[in-house]
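Second attempt. The first submission of Adenylate kinase isoenzyme 6 had a stray character pasted in from the spreadsheet, which I only caught after the job came back as garbage. Lesson logged: always re-copy from the clean sequence file. Corrected sequence (172 aa) follows.
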Amino acid sequence: MRSTVNLLPTGTPGVGKTTLGKELAQRTGLTYVNIGDLAQEGQLFDGYDEEYQCPILDEDRVVDELDEKMSEGGVIVDYHGCDLFPERWFDIVFVLRTDNTQLYTRLEARGYTGKKLQDNVQCEIFQTIYEEAMEAYSKEIVHQLPSNTPEDMEHNLDQIVQWTEQWMKDHN
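This time the job returned cleanly.
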């Protein structure tokens, strides 16, 4: 039994996972892990996707790399997918949601074009990540949070910090 909480902020690229995760780590003292950075540092890839112009994550190696740290607890994992991670890793999953017009603008600003841009916006429209989270984890731990404005971000941070503090009280 862990004595410190593990959190998964997830959602379509561009919804604010990284901003939320990093700020949350500062406010709570939890360890922030960005899966893209972890994979880059450890070369945890299994080829390259020409269509999307990005490396393909070696999911098994990522899970192996993180398993011990996750068992210890106190980790915020930032990734745009969630069904690759073992259910036992997380105490709560936050699926960030963004209005698709706003998401389109954010992704365009990142240099997304064509199929990559369209597919990511469609992913948000069809709630793909939320449905993935609901299938991969107990429904009681999966929550959707709006992530459209700086005010949404601040509200989400306050809410998650409160939840984290309560979890720590209940489990220690």
